[in-house]
Amino acid sequence: MTTIRRRSPVTFSARPSATETRNDWVVALEYSNEGDGPHLIDLSHRSRWDLQDKNISDMTPFGVAVPATPGECVLENGILVNRMNGTQAALLHLAGDQPESPEAAAFTETTEATVFLALTGKNVFSITEKLTGLDLADPAKKAPFLIQGPLSHVPCQITVLKRDGNDGVVLLTCSRGYGHNMVHAILGAGEEFGMRPAGESAFLKVLG
Predict the structure, then answer these.
(1) Which helix (H) or strand (E) holds 205?
(2) Tens digits of residue pLDDT in 19-52
């Protein structure tokens, strides 16, 4: 019998102090000396889908209504739905039990093709402003919201999930091949603020 092993495109120099095998992924739950943040968290094991349909505004994937306007996001039942354009949305599983992957032709699973990272805690927006010209702290936008564009010169989907002054939660996905360089760039930008790797438990804590 063949044992399936799914591997994250992201590696940290620190070793996790607690792990769990889930859906053939080894999930880092905690790291030693995580501190109070800011944190960089690998969520690449969390399932993601691309949804494309001409009638996308009428769809309710996983029981969640797709937002009406590009850039809008909604988080319900542990599923984040990001409206990308007139016919496309991104779906990200953030919490709760693993949902069954939809079989309809409109859905394409992107989990193993992409990197999924969370930046959480103190000075998150001071860190991101060193990596992108996109205004993730735009006061005219209410979290959660989606911005598509470059971070560290890499095309990304960036979700500002929470924002409290200069602190918050920022999610980003990009092509899997950029995983190593993206982690290096983010940790480098966050070094002056004491950014450290953290496990999934730290993300679920700030997610609430």
Answers:
(1) helix 200-207
(2) 999 989 999 999 999 999 899 999 999 999 999 9
* Contact residues for 173 (Cβ-Cβ < 8 A; gap 6+): 48, 90, 92, 110, 114, 115, 116, 117, 156, 157
> Any idea what DSSP says for residue 44?
T
SS3 122: coil
CA distances from residue 41 to 1, 27, 29, 126, 200 in whole angstroms, order as listed? 33, 11, 10, 17, 7
pTM of structure: 0.95
3.30.200.20, 3.30.1360.120, 3.40.600.10, 3.30.750.24: CATH of 16-45+112-207: 3.30.1360.120
